[in-house]
Structures are given as C-alpha cells and as structure tokens.
Amino acid sequence: MRVVIAGGHGQIALRLTKLLSGDGHEVVGLVRNPDHSADIAAAGGQAAVLDLEQSDAAAVAEVLAGADVAIFSAGAGPGSGNARKDTVDRGAAALFADAAQQAGVRRHIQVGSMGADQAPSLTDDETFTVYLRAKWAAEEDLRARDLDWTVLRPGSLTNDPGTGNVLLADKTGRGRISRGDVALVLAGLCDTPASIGRTLELIAGDTPVNEALESL
After folding, report:
1. Which of 37, 41, 47, 157 lies 20 to 30 Å (CA to CA) from residue 3?
2. Is the model's pTM score more than 0.85?
3. Cross-referenced Pfam families, in alphabetical order (predicted)?
C-alpha cells in the first residue's frame, strides 16, 4: 500500500509513518521545509517537498499518483494567525482533495477537530473560532466530493504514551487522546471500508483499536 500524508512532519504523521512503514507500506510525507526530510526518513518514509499554500492541484496530484490512500493531517499550528488557519486548515485540505481526485486516489482520510460542527460565533478567542470554522469548511468540502472519505476528529491531543485502547464512534463526547493512539487509528482506517462516508470522533477509552475499527 502506498500512502501519502499531507503535513508529513507533524507529530501524528511521523508516528503514523513509522507504523505504516514498519508494516511494509510505502509512505510519502508532504512537507514544505526540506530540513524536515531527515525526520521523515528516520521514521521510514520518503519526503516530498511541496508547499500546499503555494502549489496547485496538478503539482500535488503528481505526488499522489499511484497512491492507495491520501491522508490530510496538515495544520497551520497554534502559532499561526487567522489568515493561515484559512489557507492551510481549509484551503490546503481542499487542494489536497482536488489533487486526490485528479490522481484517481479514492481513499481519503482527513484529520479534523473535535467541535468543528459547533464552531461558535466570534468570541474573545477569535483565533480558535476561525480555526474551527476552517476545519468545518474543510469537512463540508470533503463530504461533497466523490471520494471514499473519512473524517477523524480526535479529542484534546496529548503526548502521553499510547494505550492502544480508544473510544471511536460517531459521537464520543469531549475527552483526551494520545497522539500515538490517533496514529494507530489512522493506520487502521486506511483499510476499514466501514468507515467510508463517516465522520468519527476519537478519545481515550477501553476498547482495543482493532476491535473499535471492526465494530464500525
């Protein structure tokens, strides 16, 4: 299986790359900073240097050509301003989906955000509101496409060691989840047809990841 991950240097993406490559899969991580290539290689993947904010769909489609799965795990990050919340969390997600369609990559997994469907009106935390709205717009864009899509909304992310036990459902309620366990679920979703066309929430729980995926 060939998997292309947008946001390939992210903490979840690097964990996912290590998992997939360890199982014998080919993993390509899209990054805009060439200095990040070594970290992707160390995780067992191959870097493709490409800035989703500056590229067009045709250039991204070239990287996606021949892939079995496209995973969007990019984000502007907590230190970015409102403008990049839109250009990355919404715009880059839409561009990646455009490219997947051009390249004929049907399986598409997008990492969303818990609470995106309840994006509030502007409050004193304007940046977080803009972020949630961008994530919601990206989800809505993906749901309208002719792709075998899944949206995964993790809870509050932690760097705690993964337990391998989760709660994965259409609705879970608020909670926390380790980045390692998110990576485990993403790896499993690559080959879980029952997740196609669904928006799933993920928090820590008591069910082993393989059982959680099998019960979808």
Report:
1. 157
2. yes
3. NAD_binding_10 (PF13460)
Say how far apart CA 37 and CA 17 lie, in whole Å: 12
CA 184/CA 200 separation, integer angstroms: 14
CA distances in angstroms from 20 to 25, 68, 117, listed in the order given: 5, 13, 30
Q: What is the pLDDT of residues 134-191, one digit of tens each?
A: 899 999 999 999 999 999 999 999 999 999 999 999 999 999 999 999 999 999 999 9
Question: For domain 2-214, is the CATH number 3.40.50.720?
Answer: yes
Does residue 186 contact residue 109 with C-beta atoms inside 8 Å? yes
Q: Which two tokens stand for residue 155?
A: 């809870």
> Hey, what's the torsion of the CAs at 160, 52, 31, 134, to 10 degrees?
-10
List the catalytic residues.
Answer: 131
Domain residue limits, the chain? 2-214
